[in-house]
């Protein structure tokens, strides 16, 4: 999704990305992480890190801040303003 939003509009034309989010998917992926880790003998701190990343994704999906700003800041950069004027939040 991050790659698609980054590519969207680079040519200066209007573009659209659709984000589909369901809590059921979060629950499913959490179960997959836990089951896979248990079967593979993965250390608990690795499991917690993976679940933490899943939580980051879920927060992004239900967030109330500019989506462009959230992505840019996630990767350690600064966004020039609070509002990109183009995402579903702005």
State the separation between the terminal residues, measured CA to CA.
Answer: 18 Å
Principal-axis shape: elongated
The major beta sheet can be summarized as:
none
Give the radius of gyration. Answer: 16 Å
Strand tally is: 0
Helix content: 55-70%
Textual characterization of the structure:
The protein is mainly alpha-helical and 90 residues long. The protein has helices spanning 2-7, 23-40, 44-62, 67-74. Helix 2 packs antiparallel against helix 3 (44-62). The relative contact order is 0.12.
Offer a concise description of the structure.
This protein is an all-alpha fold and 90 residues long. Helix content is 57%, strand content 0%. The two termini are 18 Å apart.
Task: Give me the secondary-structure topology.
Blueprint: H1 2-7, H2 23-40, H3 44-62, H4 67-74
Helix pairs in contact: 2-3
